[in-house]
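Dear Dr. L.,

I hope this message finds you well. Following up on our conversation about the binding site, I have prepared a predicted three-dimensional model of the protein together with adenosine-5'-diphosphate. For your records, I am including the exact sequence and ligand specification that went into the calculation, followed by the structure tokens. Please feel free to forward this to your student if that is useful.
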Amino acid sequence: MLIDVVEAPAPPRRRLTWSSPAVRIGMLGAVVVALAATYLFTDIPGSFTFALRVRSLTIAAMAVVAVAVGVSTVVFHTITGNRILTPSIMGFDAFYMLISTVIVFVAGGVTFLRTDPLTLWVVQVLVMVAFSTLLFTWLFGGKRRSLHLMLLVGIVLGTFFRSLTEWMQRMLDPLDFQILTDTAFASLTRPDPTLLAATAVIVAGGCAAIVPLVRTLDVLSLGESAAVGLGVNHRRVVMALFIIVSVMVAASTALVGPILFFGLIVANLAYSYAGTFRHRWALPAAALLGAVFLLAGQLILEQVFSFGASLSIVIEFAGGLFFLVLVLRKGAR
Amino acid sequence: MIALDHVTKRYGNTAALDDVSLTLGDVGVTALLGPNGAGKSTLFSVVGRLVQADAGTVTIDGRDVAETPSSDLARTLAVLRQDNHIAARLTVHDLVEFGRFPHSKGRLTVEDRDHIERALDYLDLEPLRDRFLDELSGGQRQRAFVAMILAQDTRYVLLDEPLNNLDLRHMTEIMRLIRQLADEWGKTVIVVLHDINFAARYADRIVALRDGRVVADADVSGFMRPDVLADIYDSPVEVHQIDGKPVALYYE
Ligand SMILES: Nc1ncnc2c1ncn2[C@@H]1O[C@H](COP(=O)(O)OP(=O)(O)O)[C@@H](O)[C@H]1O
Ligand SMILES: [Mg+2]
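The resulting structure of the complex is given below.
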């Protein structure tokens, strides 16, 4: 042994101050609860119980999406060793639109609207997961093991799918086209309760699978060679995490539509807010910040601008700007 | 013992390791020398299971590296890599704490904390413990990484150019620490060095690589000879005895 065990200094006792991550996360949780309550009880028109039911569904959808997007983005950042990409780089949004477009193209918009939402959701989730897992095993699981190549191929394929989608959409009649564009932006209000439940189960399962890996995730943030040196089976763990991430992203995308940049804001703010690289804190911080953004955004849009459905557009716009700022700041350094 | 048996590793057309058979770890400190691109880092990567050899086997204490669970190896072998870049923002203490991961899987015991404190102390890092790595000088950061390796407390310690970025005082301190690891703590250290004289002063055995092959493997007196050195480096090297110790003069 290296040394005989002498009396070790007691671990520094953590005082509960603003600088401790636990307090910060607690505060954030309180803000989320306050926002949810405000959203639930402000300005109720007509039937109280009806409004309450609709609004709790919206809040539940926001919670599920916030957790899915926040957690998956942070995990994705760690396993890819970068902080300006989100899992959607793998072409999730493009694939989602392609699937919808193909259905409308082949079967017509009316059939698309009439399809059982659960069936549609299952198909979309399966196809998205299958696609990303294939891409991942092909480019990362094999001998080449290049994460950068994988990301690059993801971007190229995403562009290809987008062009294919566009090309098909050009040939649609205006009504079908309208139906499609309605699905192109995420919609958080009035989710289908069955889909919401299914997505919630998947996202909860994903989180349950990540919890035992939080410390391993910390080690992964040191990079591949250090992680291997410390005994992490890098390939297997990264593969498992990647599949968890893609299932969570696919489920939430199939529920509310594509969300590209939202995870980026949330994850990066979570790193600064939690003030630590430890995933034990960064992961809940990202999920909670996501919920704060969605709830506050929805409240502001409804109360201030009386503007219901377009939260996702505003958030994507803000997220896109944020992305540009990140890229420019990196470039300037 | 770390045993390489006919190990070959190619990158494209160049063989970074060319049919190397070598047993390391019979003495306390082995220095690995050789010009840039000789294959020293590749050798460490193969032994440290970061890259897989194209041919041949590597065993550590008789266990095949390719078949032993990574978490077991992490308690037997620690590798300091040549370049350590970390994207996450960590303090010195955070980094050294990671050295204990193979033992405690992130839940630190009293014993773990003791190892961490000792490692910080040995590398003069006490005053810097709460500084972020990106706020340190190259040499200070290098010492933090060595401390992490020390905290890992493994039988075999592989250090790839640990003297990079260090000033004269810390160079000699690290070399003395390496000697101490071997003599007092019974560790087996294999260290990549560039300075022949550091190797001659502190190592028990010197192995030289060139173009992926072992070109010299001897104890200090067998290695510190003008003909051997000139062969390895392709340039004339004089060897003088100063205070009874061989010193190479290669400044031409
Ligand atoms: N990842 C890599 N890809 C391609 N070639 C590599 C890679 N790593 C090392 N090499 C090549 O293998 C040879 C040995 O490199 P290396 O082991 O780093 O040498 P050393 O550490 O002795 O300077 C060099 O020719 C180098 O260019
Ligand atoms: Mg090297």
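In brief: Residues B 11, 14, 16, 34, 36-42 surround adenosine-5'-diphosphate (ligand 1) (CB under 6 Å).

With kind regards,
A. P.
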